[in-house]
Write a structure and sequence with these properties.
The chain is 53% helix and 7% strand. By secondary structure, the chain is mostly helical. The protein folds into two domains: 212 residues, 3-Layer(aba) Sandwich (Rossmann fold); 83 residues, Tyrosyl-Transfer RNA Synthetase. The strands form two sheets. Strands 1-2-3 form a three-stranded parallel β-sheet. A two-stranded parallel sheet has the order 4-5. α1 links the parallel β1 and β2. It binds adenosine-5'-diphosphate and tryptophan (TRP). The site of adenosine-5'-diphosphate (ADP) has 18 residues, from α1.
Length: 330
């Protein structure tokens, strides 16, 4: 089973990225041939600062390694080290109906928010389809927000196969990572870097403390029952066992539990949880070129899988000189 996923290096990752995606990517390493990439081409649709992109990309590689991604087992690479993917994106874009892209929620949302949108943002799902189809990945673990993009990938794959009459591409299965609900941000909305309400998992301790202490709560007095569906309790639950959760929630409902105490306990749990990961991150970050070596090796291994699939697609579409009939897939 081939598992593929990518994440954009568009800011330092937060608890939503960790619980909603990255931690699960690392766990899935044990389930099959895992390929993860740092989607720097994708980040071009929003980030314009070259130095920032390079820094975020390296930081994201460090984050994955800190979380325990084992480069001997999983492939980790930087998307732009595999420019083949942009070639495949062109082949796919010519079989992608405009109407399909016009229906994309994420694009429509950005237009609705009044963002200045570029063609890259509109074509984003086609590049994402290329990311996936270039490995004929079986399973793509993504958050709920990416589900529509996955459906589009299946449509685009089918459209290419149908157009050229050859089953070049497998239709990938989405694996929606929904056993962790949406992680709330410090203001109660979905935690997202675009809302500025994040808790960055590897931020300096002072920043984490400030963010945790700043989680928005209401003015219910200490002795009154508390609403446990709010951000503070939901965030706290991420670091607790089911029994601990039941106990704290019972205390909250009974009254007498102050928000400040829950915040302090959350901070302690969060700090302890990330301490060993932080140490591993520090080790990797000290090891100078090792991270580059991991990414270079990852790109080589990724290319070995991608190249024949791209060749088959080029061949099917009649690009290049073509291969002798005998070596063509039927
Ligand atoms: P952001 O919303 O901060 O820009 P991204 O869209 O780059 O985050 O998300 C990267 C990955 O993390 C995606 O797979 C997404 O589903 C997951 N993710 C992001 N925010 C959350 C959240 N608040 N709760 C759960 N998963 C999240
Ligand atoms: N669009 C995804 C996100 O914003 C990132 C991504 C790009 C991706 N290409 C992918 C995820 C391919 C899975 C597979 O989170």
């Amino acid at each position: 089973m081939r598992i593929l996923s990518g994440i954009q290096p568009s800011g330092e990752p937060h608890l939503g990225n960790y619980f909603g995606a990255m931690r699960q990517h690392v766990e899935l390493m044990a389930k099959g041939e895992a390929i993860y990439f740092l989607a720097d081409y994708h980040s071009m649709t929003s980030i314009r600062d070259a130095a920032e992109r390079r820094r975020f990309t390296r930081e994201l590689a460090l984050d994955y390694l800190a979380l325990g991604l084992d480069p001997a087992r999983a492939i980790l690479y930087r998307q732009s080290d595999l420019p083949e993917v942009t070639e495949l994106a062109w082949l796919l874009t010519t079989v992608t109906p405009m109407g399909l892209l016009e229906r994309a929620h994420s694009f429509k949302d950005k237009v609705a928010q009044g963002m200045t949108v570029n063609h890259g943002l509109f074509a984003y799902p086609v590049l994402m389809a290329a990311d996936i189809l270039i490995y004929n990945a079986d399973i793509v673990p993504v958050g709920q927000d990416q589900k529509q993009h996955l459906e589009m990938t299946r449509d685009i794959a089918g459209s290419f196969n149908h157009t050229y009459g050859i089953e070049v591409f497998k239709l990938p299965e989405p694996m929606i990572l929904e056993h962790v609900a949406v992680v709330p941000g410090v203001d109660g909305r979905k935690m997202s870097k675009s809302y500025g309400n994040t808790i960055r998992m590897f931020a300096p301790p002072g920043e984490i403390k400030k963010a945790v202490m700043g989680i928005v709560t209401d003015s219910t007095p200490v002795d009154q029952p508390k609403d446990t569906t709010t951000a503070l309790f939901q965030l706290w639950s991420l670091f607790a066992t089911a029994d601990e959760r039941a106990e704290l929630f019972a205390r909250a409902k009974a009254g007498g539990l102050g928000y400040g105490d829950v915040k302090k306990d959350l901070l302690a749990r969060l700090t302890a949880h990330f301490a060993p990961l932080r140490a591993r991150r520090e080790e990797w970050s000290q090891r100078g070129h090792d991270v580059e070596d991991v990414l270079r090796d990852g790109a080589q291994r990724a290319r070995a899988i991608a190249r024949p699939i791209l060749e088959a697609a080029r061949d099917a579409a009649g690009l290049g000189a073509g291969r002798p009939e005998a070596t063509r897939p039927d």
